[in-house]
């Protein structure tokens, strides 16, 4: 006898309900706090399509914890939650019920970290930390190869901890300059899949729940970061330390201290960002994003800067200028707003221990800045 789940596949109900869920997901970009301009709404529509691609990749193509694979939830054309333009990200769906082995080559990328997470954006809009290991603690063979065991039980040498509730891995590779270092490469395998779970054939009864999770990923992810922008608007054009626990629950890196906010500038305004002191240990970067917390178009414009690409003042301090047009050679750390008048922004102190100097901001007239009268 055909089950109800099978009938929903056969008569198209599963697909139609998935499409209805996507239609409802579009309500996010119509929330009262979102900018009601054709430009921002069009970016919002594009954002939803990008989230859908990410959700389908995660829930349809790469969801089996017994046959794990690394994929990119965020990349050059899918941008989520103030994604870092200096990064290559990889994600992997796992389960704390199993053990895994990651094999790879270290490469020369300056920063490499693997973190296990509990929770998921499609269900509870969280990726809580359950374990992390970075390149400083990974033993690498003379030929550059390494192995990491991922387990809820302690393991010798390279061990990436997880818990029974762990559901995913996030990998971050952070570059000083993209293309100037060799990326790490890696694969993953499940060491002890349950009996009967060795096949990678499609389970027809799994397709509708996977579609539901993909649609939920679009809805909950877009609402999560719209919620964040409502929080950040309370300290507009400032860069205070963010709620670090909230950042970690959303999938943040334990080695990063986040300063996150909302920027908004009129046509003749500029945002001047200054740090009087740079820590002697670790690195930093800063980026601009749009209202949907997607990094701006870094492939064609300078919208981010880091410790290696910045110009420093004679006393070692840092000054960054965010403006709609280039203020000239006296301001080498200019970042382009790419025709946006508002968005998210994020300053990261990376691997600096407990040393996180304050970052000050001030809004000035761009014409006065150029003229040297402010």
Q: Strand pairing plus helix content: what structural class?
A: alpha+beta
Q: In the CATH hierarchy, what is the architecture of the largest domain at level 2?
A: Sandwich
Enumerate the spans where pLDDT stays under 50 for 5 or more consecutive residues: none
The major β-sheet equals: 4 strands, antiparallel
Number of strands: 16
Q: Into how many domains do the coordinates divide?
A: 3
How many helices does DSSP assign? 6
Helicity, as a percent range: 10-25%
Determine and state the CATH class of the largest domain.
Mainly Beta
Going across the biggest sheet, name each strand in turn.
1-7-3-4
Q: What is the ordering of alpha helices and beta strands?
A: HHHEEEEEEEEHHEEEEEEEEH
Q: Name the CATH superfamily assignment of the largest domain.
A: Domain of unknown function DUF1214, C-terminal domain
Shape: globular
What's the mean pLDDT score?
A: 96
CATH fold assignment of the largest domain: Jelly Rolls
Cα-based radius of gyration, to the nearest Å: 22 Å
Amount of beta strand: 25-35%
Q: Span from first to last CA?
A: 79 Å
């Amino acid at each position: 006898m055909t089950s109800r789940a099978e009938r929903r596949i056969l008569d198209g109900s599963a697909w139609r309900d998935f499409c209805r869920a996507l239609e409802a997901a579009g309500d996010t970009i119509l929330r009262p706090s979102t900018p009601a301009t054709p430009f921002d709404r069009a970016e919002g529509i594009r954002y939803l399509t990008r989230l859908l691609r990410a959700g389908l990749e995660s829930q349809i193509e790469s969801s089996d914890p017994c046959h794990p694979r690394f994929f990119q939830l965020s990349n050059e054309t899918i941008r989520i939650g103030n994604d870092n333009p200096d990064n290559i990200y990889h994600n992997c769906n796992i389960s704390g019920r199993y053990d895994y082995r990651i094999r790879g080559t270290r490469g020369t990328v300056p920063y490499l970290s693997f973190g296990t997470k509990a929770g998921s954006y499609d269900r509870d809009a969280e990726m809580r930390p359950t374990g992390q290991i970075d390149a400083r603690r990974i033993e690498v063979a003379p030929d550059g190869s390494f192995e990491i065991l991922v387990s809820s039980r302690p393991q010798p040498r390279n061990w990436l901890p997880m818990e029974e509730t762990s559901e995913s891995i996030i990998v971050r590779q952070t570059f000083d300059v993209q293309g100037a270092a060799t990326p790490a490469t890696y694969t993953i395998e499940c060491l002890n899949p349950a009996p009967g779970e060795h096949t990678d054939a499609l389970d027809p009864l799994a397709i509708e729940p996977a579609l539901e999770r993909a649609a939920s990923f679009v809805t909950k992810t877009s609402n999560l970061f719209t919620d964040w922008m409502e929080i950040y608007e309370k300290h507009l054009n400032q860069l205070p330390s963010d709620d670090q626990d909230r950042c970690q629950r959303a999938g943040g890196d334990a080695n990063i201290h986040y300063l996150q906010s909302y920027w908004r500038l009129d046509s003749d305004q500029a945002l001047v960002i200054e740090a009087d002191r740079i820590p002697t240990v670790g690195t930093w970067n800063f980026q601009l994003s749009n209202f949907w917390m997607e990094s701006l178009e870094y492939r064609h414009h300078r919208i981010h800067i880091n410790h290696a690409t910045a110009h420093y003042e004679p006393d070692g301090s840092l000054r960054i200028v965010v403006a709609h047009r280039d203020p000239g050679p006296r301001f080498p750390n200019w970042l382009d707003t790419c025709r946006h008048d508002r968005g998210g922004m994020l300053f990261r102190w990376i691997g600096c221990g407990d040393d996180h100097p304050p970052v000050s901001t001030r809004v000035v007239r761009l014409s006065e800045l150029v003229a040297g009268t402010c």
